């Protein structure tokens, strides 16, 4: 159920920066309207929205911004209403907002500890609210709209190579991306039954603020040792393929697939017996040292108190 994005409308959460900003830019340049839904916009995102609020070039899409905390379900509902009020319809939904095991919602900084913002009596981790619950709830809202209108649609998730591997350095993040990939696979039959395609992109190590502005993560990356960045525009192009194509260089595109993106390569992740990510843009050389630092800190006494 591939379709051209030209003349369509997309909702993109997390469009204020990184991969989702790159995809929003790709959509706008191809004549697709985009609602940017995020807590805030980085300057480059604000410039993009400003330039496309009323673009002079009729071939470009229009943009609008709604401040959105994706952990608040009422705000997720409101972004659908906002998209309809601005653009009249919705065709593509990208629940892309996510966090990479920040200090404030982190397995190694338990609720109640100095760096954590997860309350000890809160009964939830904010990372999962953002990375798992928000994509699931947004998918329900998108399905409700597409089914009610009896129209095809595309729901595009942002998973990660973290959904295929494990790392002691970021256990909550790894678990969240395993959850996203599994969730997407479960919804594969929606394409043949209703014309609603649910897919996910699984990027490797992407040069975005989630890495470059997080010192604890950036020190895992060692360019001198051979680590390589994947550019967000490469991921955006793969995301476009998931909406617009029934086949790409990696193979046939259908609902439920996970499309991995490394440096100069894409690959469809097999549901069973997958060999796992390999090649440029998929590894960080200094991760073992970071894990050792974490374990030494945990062994020092008083951890989790």
Automatic annotation (TrEMBL):
The domain of life for this entry's organism is Eukaryota
InterPro entries with a match to the protein in the record: NAD(P)-bd_dom_sf, SDR_fam
Q: Name one GO molecular function term.
A: oxidoreductase activity, acting on the CH-OH group of donors, NAD or NADP as acceptor
Residue ranges spanning the membrane: these are none
The record's Gene Ontology cellular component field reads: cytoplasm
Ordered alphabetically, the record's keywords are:
Oxidoreductase
Q: Does the keyword Oxidoreductase apply?
A: yes
Q: Which PANTHER family match?
A: 15-HYDROXYPROSTAGLANDIN DEHYDROGENASE [NAD(+)]
Family according to the record:
Belongs to the short-chain dehydrogenases/reductases (SDR) family.
> What is the official name of this protein in its record?
NAD-dependent 15-hydroxyprostaglandin dehydrogenase
